[in-house]
Every structure is written in C-alpha cells, then in structure tokens.
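Bench log, entry 3. Co-assembly request; chain sequences pasted below exactly as received.
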Amino acid sequence: MVRAHILICGGTGCTSSRSMVIAEKLNEELKARELENEIKVVTTGCFGLCALGPIMIVYPDGTFYSRVTEDDVQEIVEEHLIKGRVVQRLVYDDSGIENVKANSLAETGFYRKQKRVALRNCGVINPEEIDEYIAMDGYQALGKVLTEMTPDQVIQEILDSGLRGRGGGGFPTGRKWDFAAKVQSDKKYVVCNADEGDPGAFMDRSVLEGDPHAVLEAMAIAGYAIGADEGYIYVRAEYPIAIKRLQVAINQAREYGLLGKNIFDTGFNFDIQLRFGAGAFVCGEETALLTSIEGKRGEPRPRPPFPAVKGLFGQPTIINNVETLANIPQIILKGASWFTTMGTEKSKGTKVFALGGKIEHTGLVEIPMGTTLREIVFEIGGGIPGGKKFKAAQTGGPSGGCIPAQHLDTPIDYDSLIAIGSMMGSGGLIVMDEDNCMVDIAKFFLEFTVDESCGKCTPCRVGTRRMLEILNRITEGKGEDGDIEKLEELAYNIKSTALCGLGQTAPNPVLSTLRYFRDEYEAHIYEKRCPAGQCKALAKIVIEADKCKGCSLCSRICPVGAISGEIKKPFVIDQAKCIKCQACMEKCKFGAIVKK
Amino acid sequence: MKSLAELAAIRDKMKDKVALREGVNTTRIVVGMATCGIAAGARPVLNAFVEAVNEAGLAENVTVTQTGCIGLCQYEPIVEIYTPKSEKVTYVKMTPDKVKKVVEEHIKGGNIVTEYTIGNE
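Structure output for the full assembly:
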C-alpha cells in the first residue's frame, strides 16, 4: 500500500538540472530499503518555480524541497521517508522577507496569490498516465458535451465565459468557434498552435509537458462544437519533452477510445496528429502556421479570408493556443459563471506569465486577470535581486512593450496593457532593473524580429532592418540629430503596412521605450552617454585617483596597454586606446576603477 | 471505453491514489518513527495504518504520516491522531493488530479506543 508520493518536476527546466537522475537514484534508494511498494516516485510537469529547481514535493505532508541534488537523495530517504524528519536545509526558504521556511507549497509567497486553472494539473499529476488525468476529472467535460450538450450550447458556454485567446491577440475564443461552426463544409479542422516562439515565454511548453490530455480533450470539444473530425497540433521541434508526452497522451487516449471513432458511443469521431515546426518564429502566426502544416514554406498570407472560413487545406479551421485550450474543459465542467468570477470586466479568467530577467523567482505563475504588475513582480516574483531598483517590465515579447515603474499598479489585462503601450502577448514578462539600457533592450527585440522576418513583405523585411541600423548607430555613439524622428516614421509605416502580425507589431519595443524612456535615447544621441552604463562603446572606464594605490596590477592586465602610471601613484587610462573590456575593473582590489 | 460510466469508474478508482497529493485531509494519523519507534516496531504499524485506511475507503479524508521522536521512548510505537473537532489522541505501544480496531472505532466511528491510549498506561 502506498503511503507517500514523491513528486519530482519533469519539466524542461528541472530536467536540465538533472531531476530525472535524481528520480532514478530515489527509486534505487527506495528499492534498496524495500520501500518501493510504500513510496511512489511520480514525475510531473512544471511547478513553476524554475529558478529553484530541481523541485521535489513529498506528500502527504506536502514538504517542498528545492535545489535538490543527487547527493541529497540518501538523506531524504533516511531522514524524511523512514523517520519522518523533514530535511530542513532543503526546504524552500520563502524569499527571506518573512524569514520563515514554508513547509508546504500553498504557503509560499510564490503560490499564495496564484490561481492555477490552465496549470492546475502541472506539478500534480504524472502527465504520462491518462488514469491520473481522469482522476482529476479528465475527459468528463468531453463526456458532458457529447452526451448532454448541442454544439450551439457548447459555443454559447464559451462565449458566455468571455475566454479570450491566450496566444497574444486576445480574440474571443467563442466567436472564433462560432464563425467556423456557421460555415457549411464537409470537412473542418481544429488546430492547436503550440509554436511558442516569444523569447522568454514557456507556458505552452509547460502545459504540454505537464497536462497534455487537457489540450487533447479541449481540441475534441472544439471539434464537436464546430463540426470537425480532425485536429493538428503544431508544436515546435525544440520541445522534445512536450512532443514525447503529447505522443504518449495521444496513444493512450486512442487506446481508451477517447480519440478515434464513435467516442462515448455517440457517433462523434475525432483524431489528432502532430506536426513539428522547424524553428521559424513566423510559423506562430496563424496563416503561416497553416501553410507550414500543408507542407509549404511557412509564410503568412493576407486575411481575409480568415482561417475560420478558409483555413487548412482550404477548409474552415479554428486555431487556438495551448493555454486557451487548457481552460476549455474546466469552463465546460464548472460553467461560464464560474470562469467569469475571475478576472476583470473584459478579460476573464487567469493568465500564465513566464517571469524572467532581473527577478528572484524566475519561473511560471498563473494569476487572475487584474492582478497588478507590482503584485507579480514584488510579491509573487520575490522582487529584484541585489536590492536594485525596478526600471521596467517588458511584456508581449518582440511584439510588446515596456511598462515603466509609474504603471506598476495597473491591473493587468488585455486592454489595460494596450492602453499603456504594451500588450499581453503570450505572457512573457521580463523584468529590468536600473542596470538595463532601454535602447539596448529595444535593439535586442528588433534584432530578433530582423532575424525572424520571413521576407515576404517589404515593410518588415527592409523596414525593421533600417530601424535596427539606426539603433546600432545610437548605441555605438554615432547617433545623430533626427534619428528619433526617423525611427518613429519608420515604425508607423511598418505598423500600418506590414502583411502579418509579426511585422505590424515589430516596432512596438522601440515605440514603447521611446514613449517612456525618450531621455535615454537623447542621452545616447546628444551626450554620447549611456545612463545605465550598458552600451560598451559609450561607457568610459576611469581610475579614481583618490582610491588608486598605484599597485600597477591593472596596467599588467590591460590587453591593449591603455593603462600607464608610476608605482605608488595613481594610474590613468588612455581613453583613445581603451576597448572597454572591463578586465581591469574586475581585478582592481581597491574598487578604484569605475564605469562612467 | 464506450460510456461515461466507464470513465467514472476509472476516476473513482484513481481518485484515492492521487488524493494523497491534495494535502488538505482532515484527519491525520502520525506515527512516531525515530530510532526508538522503529526499533519498537513502528514500521509495521505504519504500514498497517495505510492499509486499513485504504481498505476502509477513507484515503480521501485521512492522511497517514510519520514524525520524529515524541519523547516517550518507553511507550513506542506511539501513534497520535489529529481530528478536526476533538483533541489530539495519543495511542501507545501500538501493534499492527491494534490498528484495525483504532481505524474502525476511532477514525470511522469517532469513539476513542481508550484501552490503547496513553492515559491507560
């Protein structure tokens, strides 16, 4: 009889910090002590607290261990599992603010404000066991729609729930389904967009890795609602764990008859196939994605016709994002009225954010819409490391924008983010502190879009490249009067003329940083100075004479011989020779060398 | 699978197995598992509790877990039972044979098995 479960995160983050090796070792240790029938080791999806991985939770007591290593396994088995003594040194220490060790997950600052809907099974069930999903009411929603509801009722329920697309656009999901349902056709398709490409966003991967059946179930429900019998999941090939678990899940669902012909004896047929993306960002754009599934080069095409009318292989098609789909079964089971209790007036439910950048708890969080940025960054995310000051948060990836400190208290939803010049996007949230240069950030995202532009339309192919060239000049100290105006003109032209969403939103990082941090651009251009000290070409490395002891260490380290002086007297850096490598700064024992 | 009934059957069968992970159960059976407890035979007692709780179909509401030394080594194996409404009950010198009675009468029936409690020693 099993008396304890040890849950180990098998998400990509923890797997790369060797969680699977730990699981193996744990099984060995348990076997050696003949505990294998009493204690079960369960590999789950992502818990969200990736910064602290590998993560392990021991039930029934719910002890939360973080940063576990192979060497800790023996101690955990001997102390915790045999004697019932929690290994305190491995227990997750809650942010240091409260100075208490949280023994269970729900008590931690990281989880307290979260509301897990799309991620509800991630870190709870073994994603490769369909029975565990069923234990969590899995496939009940599919059973309910097939036996108790008409397709119209299903669509009405989704419309009433107010669910909007979580992939970025925020289009009402129910309306999408309604369009496709109303088109007459013998053949329709349901497509799941799992080509998650925004830098820093990984919520879709987590859902696929932690709860793949939820996506399959939702796709079957969507198929019933619009009258489709075939589905495709377009998942990027860079997600090997997600692909493997999806394939396992599809096979198990077929074996149980939850996919295939005559599901629940109702005459409804639905099956799902996987298609792998080859790493092009543009294939996350829905028309490019469909073109890619058809076996052609992934390029977008103009809309209309919208996919709901003419999509995959010319047939009516709905495309939903992974996180959107993960909400569907629960809306069906608990009702639209339950879903609408969460969120704001026009953005219902929850949203998953991937926290990254200058933040303590890098990881995944799911919060009700309307939570403020301050709560996300400082309460859930644990604040900025090293006591630095918050400068801005970037949301929406390369299509989004930066939110400065004065908007920290804005309740986050689709519309409020657009109002302050950013967007929800797929939910990447990158935090920046005082050391980040905003011109450099804009450049980073623009580099990404320039790389990923498919080249089909001129504004995106050529326009973004011209913008990047200007930004490069500015950060190299060669900015000229009029550069800002040129950037703005280009940005508005690209926005209004690019073919697809990728191009239309590509200038957003530049526009939003210009809106809030114009002074930084101006400092780069007119004063040849980078206020954050990030732009190497503009930084000036100097020796502070009063701190310099004249030890000559720096002059021996300098690779270009730019430092000279007399022993026991202050040394000086020849700015004309200095290449700003900062090697001298790192080596100076007296902190006499600073960047200005 | 051809019916909702089959789906429900799997769910019910599995529910107990994952209930362990909810961690919000109301009743807790805590077995002292320090060196003294183990030496006195706490392990078979712990296993007997897990088995009896599952057999009685109580897994969803009852958690069986271990703790360290309670400090009364001469009375080991010691088992403490926490229920939401009443005070903590401490059973001493437990054996697997006594377990069934405790689960039946105390956990299920709500009547403390006084003859096994510490007050009776």
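The first strand of chain B starts at residue 27 and ends at 32. Residues 4-120 of chain B form a domain with the Glutaredoxin fold (CATH 3.40.30.10).
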